[in-house]
């Protein structure tokens, strides 16, 4: 058990990478708060955790709503007493070329993918400071490092998370809190399910490992960064992309 009794809030844990991570963390002994805006999906993840003998429950959360995240943190503290790990995994895309992107598309992605992370961190940071320890993991993307046509809003948000991660690693390190980011490459989840087969094949060919990522590939990266094995890792950005952007 690499996360015995570690109370972990995972946002966007109803689907894709977050779901796989919630199941893996529970298997490794974590107490998982499955936080998601999608009630049905979140309840399903929580039910799966319990079916497997793990400890966790669903908490309804829209990360762009500051009152909701405060409530999720209060409830988790009441139930478990600490918050050891926060995984800021929730994210959305609303793609368009720059000339066609609406202000709404820009604002929504920035609000969820960038400000949503800030909201969640602010809601847990005082608890972690008082505990004298904590782990925060932000989910960036290789798009935040390299850019991608049609994703100016998403690339800005995901690049912003890298600046946020490095700043908070400096601010919070002395308080015993580690802050890191992961940058997944192309991972097969509902978020990427509409990508045409031709593009998928091109991505496979461009990837040195000659395959696309699975949610579990990212879940293991989160697991490492959350565990005590990574206790000297702070301010890092770990690419999980099969070597796509080297
Ligand atoms: P996913 O399958 O779409 O899952 C995301 C989950 O987050 C969904 O359950 C979604 O609910 C929920 N969510 C959406 N908006 C939310 C909000 N405001 N508050 C709370 N939860 C919200 O996505 P994924 O592919 O697993 O992606 C997980 C993270 O990895 C994201 O941050 C994404 O940007 C990042 N990432 C993914 C890839 C990839 O190739 N898949 C690559 C790089 C980075 P709904 O279903 O109702 O929207």
Characterization of the model:
The chain is of the alpha/beta class and 246 residues long. It has one domain (7-240): 3-Layer(aba) Sandwich (Rossmann fold), CATH 3.40.50. The protein is 48% helix and 16% strand. The chain has 8 helices and 7 strands; from the N terminus they run βαβαβαβαβααβααβ. The protein has a 7-stranded parallel sheet with strand order 3-2-1-4-5-6-7, with helices on both faces. Helix 1 (16-27) links the parallel strand 1 and strand 2 (31-36). Helix 1 (16-27) crosses helix 8. The radius of gyration is 17 Å and the shape is globular. The protein binds NADP nicotinamide-adenine-dinucleotide phosphate (NAP).
Please summarize what this structure is.
The protein is globular, with a radius of gyration of 17 Å. The chain has helices at residues 16-27, 39-51, 66-80, 103-131, 142-146, 152-173, 197-206, 215-226, and strands spanning 7-11, 31-36, 55-60, 85-88, 134-139, 177-184, 237-240.
């Amino acid at each position: 058990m690499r996360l015995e009794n570690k109370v972990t809030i995972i946002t966007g844990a109803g689907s894709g990478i977050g779901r796989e991570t919630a199941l893996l963390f529970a298997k490794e002994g974590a107490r998982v708060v499955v936080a998601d805006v999608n009630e049905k999906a979140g309840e399903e993840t929580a039910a799966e955790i319990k079916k497997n003998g793990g400890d966790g429950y669903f908490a309804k959360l829209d990360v762009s709503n500051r009152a909701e995240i405060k409530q999720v943190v209060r409830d988790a503290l009441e139930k478990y007493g600490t918050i050891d790990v926060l995984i800021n995994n929730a994210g959305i895309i609303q793609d368009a070329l720059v000339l066609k992107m609406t202000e709404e598309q820009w604002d929504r992605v920035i609000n969820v993918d960038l400000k949503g992370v800030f909201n969640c961190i602010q809601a847990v940071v005082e608890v972690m400071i008082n505990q004298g320890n904590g782990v925060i993991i932000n989910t960036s993307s290789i798009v935040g490092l390299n850019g991608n046509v049609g994703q100016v809003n998403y690339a800005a948000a995901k690049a912003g998370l890298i600046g946020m991660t490095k700043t908070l690693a400096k601010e919070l390190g002395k308080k015993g809190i580690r802050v890191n980011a992961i940058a997944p490459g192309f991972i097969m989840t509902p978020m990427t399910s509409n990508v045409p087969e031709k593009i998928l094949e091109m991505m496979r060919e461009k990837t040195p490992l000659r395959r696309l990522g699975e949610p579990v590939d990212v879940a293991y990266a989160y697991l490492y960064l959350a565990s005590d094995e990574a206790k000297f890792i702070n301010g890092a950005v770990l690419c999980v992309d099969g070597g796509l952007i080297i």
